[in-house]
Amino acid sequence: MIRVLLAEDQAMVRGALSALLKLESDLDVVGCAADGEEAWQLTQRAALDGNGPDIVVTDIEMPKLTGLELAQRIREREIGCKVIILTTFARPGFLRRALDAGVSGYLLKDAPAEQLAEAIRKVHRGGRAIDPQLALEAWSGDDPLNDRERQVLRLAGEGMSAGDIAGQLHLSQGTVRNYLSEAIGKLGVSNRIEAYRLARQKGLL
Amino acid sequence: MIRVLLAEDQAMVRGALSALLKLESDLDVVGCAADGEEAWQLTQRAALDGNGPDIVVTDIEMPKLTGLELAQRIREREIGCKVIILTTFARPGFLRRALDAGVSGYLLKDAPAEQLAEAIRKVHRGGRAIDPQLALEAWSGDDPLNDRERQVLRLAGEGMSAGDIAGQLHLSQGTVRNYLSEAIGKLGVSNRIEAYRLARQKGLL
DNA sequence: ACTTGCCCGTGACAACTGTCAGCCGGATAG
DNA sequence: CTATCCGGCTGACAGTTGTCACGGGCAAGT
Known about the structure:
- Two copies of one chain form a homodimer.
- Chain A has helices at residues 11-22, 36-48, 67-76, 92-100, 114-124, 132-138, 147-157, 162-169, 173-187, 192-201, and strands at 2-7, 27-33, 55-58, 82-87, 105-108, 129-130.
- By secondary structure, chain A is of the alpha/beta class.
- A six-stranded parallel β-sheet of chain A has the order 2-1-3-4-5-6, sandwiched between helices.
């Protein structure tokens, strides 16, 4: 019996995926989480009790903690469970960061439903399940942005001013503007809005 | 037995929803479509054979034919089956257009999974199933923005400067800034980025 | 110890943004 | 006809943004 934990913010989709996996006799859905933070709590707590999930299937874009951050944390704290990313976005940057975060699988929501159970089994056997089309693209374009630039850009994209961002990240306003300027330059655009859009589109956020 | 047809472009989600509905003993998933056009073909053909679906559950954003267009067509050709929209987007503008197209239900993918089956039954009995939170907004929050403000905001949201926008719309730079200022004020935010995000989120663009 | 690189910060400057008060011409209505 | 509204424009002002040059601190290599 493979123990699976599901993290996905859209309740309807979460419930439906759960129903899908419950049809498989060798899979056991031991938990569902509506955001990354909840998934982390559940995983960690269960792991301490010795009945943690074998596989975490997670979306990327979720409130509080993204799927990528969740994967990273699971690896850092050595929880010992595998992670499969299940997302809408075929962005090379996402896949790359997912691999850096040590995930074992990366599936698209566009893929046929049967692939999910198959991927879970494959990963559980110690294999990897990476969408083949995407795997190719991932090593072509490279990611110019560093962590700070990403953070700052993300906040700027939500409409925060340099001052706001500085407050939130405990930096000075000038530094924030420098990072933004850097990011704008690296991406070859002319203001923060375009930088945000481009970075987002390329999956660099 | 309620006959249901499912239209949703993401294969994984489509399969999962299908699994979810198959758990209900009084529901029968008689077809799945990956886009609006396919859903229309299936619905129409089955209707001619006298075994058309009672309910079509459809996403909005799909290739070829959107869920809204599908709903409209089903009503125009008097197929005689009900439509339930199932979408990510809580935009009052979408709901309004959906109602105009004669749909019987409008659910969010954020809603709990159980609601889908309930909504289907309710609509089959002749009722309506509109997300209550959304229903309020749709007729309360009426659109504060005028055409110019919308245009300008849309372009600003793509990263264009006041000067760029002025060029594109054949206005003066100052006028563009005035419109932006107006829009920012009406939406109660503090810069163009937030204004864009809010307007977009409310479906006003 | 010395470079090299990175992170964070400063100060200054030009450009852009957001706000406001007010002008003009056309349409509409009383 | 005149009053009023509306779309568009202007000019001015303070605040924010984008750029640049530069300085200090810290870590890793050499």
